[in-house]
Amino acid sequence: MDNQQLAAIAGRFGTPCFVFDETALEKRMRAVREMLAPSVALCYSIKANPFLIPAMRSLVGTLEVCSPGELEICRQMGVPADMVLFSGVNKTKADVERAMDLGVTHFTCESPLHIRLIDEAARARGRVYPVLLRLTAGSQFGMDEQDFFDALDRRADTPNIRIEGVHYFSGTQRKK
Questions:
Q1: At a CB cut-off of 8 Å and minimum separation 6, what does 167 contact?
Q2: CA gap 55, 66 in Å, rounded
Q3: Omega into 112 within 30° of 0, i.e. cis?
Q4: Could you tell me whether strands 43-45 and 106-109 are parallel, antiparallel, or unpaired per DSSP bridges?
Q5: Most buried among 11, 16, 29, 100, using CB within 10 Å?
Q6: What tens-digit pLDDT sequence spans the chain (176 residues)?
Q7: pTM
């Protein structure tokens, strides 16, 4: 879009006005995809921009949701549940169970509590669920090193989860 088109849109809808060019988005995502090995999977976190789900569904393999509300948005938009990674620090037993009952197959574990909740819900369903352990970058999100390594050392205690990787976000606007 050129500046004149953007000005016309802002004039029509007022300000602030956020405009997303899905054609440019698709072009950028394809460029990112070309830079990466075919084995690297891409994930889009729907957080503030769930309206981009229709465009992103065909560009990534996974959509990350961080709350029951975001999970419901995906359900209402017809996103296949096995395309969803259920993340978030405030997952409760009921949230985990509902996600599993909807067909979500991948979760992040942000704490020892999440490891236990997901393992117990998986055991009740007679399944093993793949998980990512979330390692903190010094914020309230994820496990510290001690909890992270304890989870790895105690894998045998949680047979209904399979640790497949690490979820790590270093953050934005950081000075170090």
A1: 87, 108, 132, 133, 134, 135, 142
A2: 19
A3: no
A4: unpaired
A5: 100
A6: 778 887 888 889 888 877 788 899 999 999 999 999 998 889 999 987 899 999 999 899 999 999 999 999 999 999 999 999 999 888 999 999 999 999 999 999 999 999 999 999 999 999 999 999 999 888 888 999 999 999 999 999 999 999 999 998 777 655 65
A7: 0.86
